[in-house]
Amino acid sequence: MTKICIYGAGAIGGYLASALDQAGAEVSLVARGPH
Fold first, then answer.
1. 12 φ/ψ angles, rounded to the nearest 5 degrees
2. Contacts of 7 (CB under 8 A, 6+ apart)
3. SS3 sequence, the chain?
4. Helix, strand, coil share of the chain (percent; to 5)
5. How many domains does the chain have?
6. What is the CA radius of gyration of the chain?
7. Using an 8 Å Cβ cutoff, are 7 and 31 in contact?
8. 15-18: which pairs have CB atoms within 8 A and are 24 or more residues apart?
9. Is residue 26 within 8 Å of 2, Cβ to Cβ?
10. Predicted local distance difference test score (pLDDT) of residue 33
11. Closest listed residue to residue 4, CA positions, set 21, 22, 23, 26
């Protein structure tokens, strides 16, 4: 399983995280503050 960390949990980061998760990757998101 591929592990990916995305720095920036905004609209594009969230979209990429969702797409990568659906493709089977293990995804972590890093954000500046609570969202």
1. -75, -45
2. 13, 30
3. CCEEEEECCCHHHHHHHHHHHHCCCEEEEECCCCC
4. 35, 30, 35
5. 1
6. 9
7. no
8. none
9. yes
10. 76
11. 26
pLDDT digits (tens, 9 = 90+) for 1-35: 899 999 998 999 999 999 999 999 999 999 987 65
Determine the pLDDT at residue 34: 67
Residue 26 tokens, joined:
């293990």
Going from the C-alpha of 3 to that of each of 15, 33, 34, the distances in angstroms are 16, 22, 23
Which pair of tokens denotes residue 3? 């592990």
Q: Which two tokens stand for residue 17?
A: 């995280």
Encoded tokens for 31 = 């954000």
Q: Tell me which amino acid residue 8 is.
A: G
Domain carrying residue 29? 1-35
